[in-house]
Structures are given as C-alpha cells and as structure tokens.
Amino acid sequence: MAIQFTVHEVKVNLKEKRKLKSFLAALFEREGQGLKSLHYVFCSDAYLLEINKQFLQHDTYTDIVTFEMGEDPDVTEGEIYISIDRVVDNALKFGVSNEQELHRVIFHGALHLCGYKDKSKKEAELMRSKEDENLALYFEA
C-alpha cells in the first residue's frame, strides 16, 4: 500500500505527512475498503480546470477531482487532484484555517473512493458528517 503526495506548480504546507498517511490507511480500513495505492496531486485552479474539462467535461473550477484507477471495486487505486487555490478561498469563505480545509478536502477524496457520494442533499449531509468525524479523529490524535 502506497500513499503519495505530489505538488504541481503550487506551494502547500502539508505537515506531518507520515501521520497523515497512517491516518488515511486507517480511514480505508475503518470503511472496509482495501487500499493498494493513493496519489494526491496538489495543484492550481488552472491545472485542475483542465483536468475537469478533459476528463469530466465540466468547465468549472472545483476544489477536488477524484479518480478510481483500479478495476477491483474492493481495492482502491486512486488519484486525487486538489486545487490549493480553491482550498485557500474556501477556508476564508467558511472561516476555517487553510490546514483544516485542506484536510477536509483530503478526507473528502478518500471518502469518495470508499463509496460515499455527494450529489443529493442526503448524500452530501452524510459526506459532511464523515468529513467532520475524520477531522475530529485526526486533529484529536
């Protein structure tokens, strides 16, 4: 199982990477989802917009795009792209720290790969609840 973080044309202050990798592995375990590989790419709005257009045919800015790359639904091989520009803007908008918002989005992507959706109001409420649960667990430790 490999969890990797890559930075593409942005600056990001990701603290305690070892702790975060262990926590993410435990998140997948708690959710009953196998994990083979997980690659986070922290990037700019412009970079993520191009990915959104090319792969999802969405011409909008977003904070995250998540891809399942594997063929086994029980074992994740994922790529998660996160716009640091959106994270910073959303942190201001929601009145939280950049670190808090970055971790919310990191966990959000992992939860998508565990099968959680956020299209309907009910799905979005459950997703937000799971994000909050993981934030509390992570920052308590």
UniProtKB/TrEMBL annotation:
<dbReference type="InterPro" id="IPR002036">
    <property type="entry name" value="YbeY"/>
</dbReference>
<keyword id="KW-0255">Endonuclease</keyword>
<keyword id="KW-0690">Ribosome biogenesis</keyword>
<keyword id="KW-0378">Hydrolase</keyword>
<comment type="similarity">
    <text>Belongs to the endoribonuclease YbeY family.</text>
</comment>
<keyword id="KW-0862">Zinc</keyword>
<keyword id="KW-0698">rRNA processing</keyword>
<comment type="function">
    <text>Single strand-specific metallo-endoribonuclease involved in late-stage 70S ribosome quality control and in maturation of the 3' terminus of the 16S rRNA.</text>
</comment>
<feature type="binding site">
    <location>
        <position position="112"/>
    </location>
    <ligand>
        <name>Zn(2+)</name>
    </ligand>
</feature>
<dbReference type="Pfam" id="PF02130">
    <property type="entry name" value="YbeY"/>
</dbReference>
<keyword id="KW-0540">Nuclease</keyword>
<keyword id="KW-0479">Metal-binding</keyword>
<feature type="binding site">
    <location>
        <position position="118"/>
    </location>
    <ligand>
        <name>Zn(2+)</name>
    </ligand>
</feature>
<keyword id="KW-0963">Cytoplasm</keyword>
<feature type="binding site">
    <location>
        <position position="108"/>
    </location>
    <ligand>
        <name>Zn(2+)</name>
    </ligand>
</feature>
<dbReference type="InterPro" id="IPR023091">
    <property type="entry name" value="MetalPrtase_cat_dom_sf_prd"/>
</dbReference>
<protein>
    <recommendedName>
        <fullName>Endoribonuclease YbeY</fullName>
        <ecNumber>3.1.-.-</ecNumber>
    </recommendedName>
</protein>
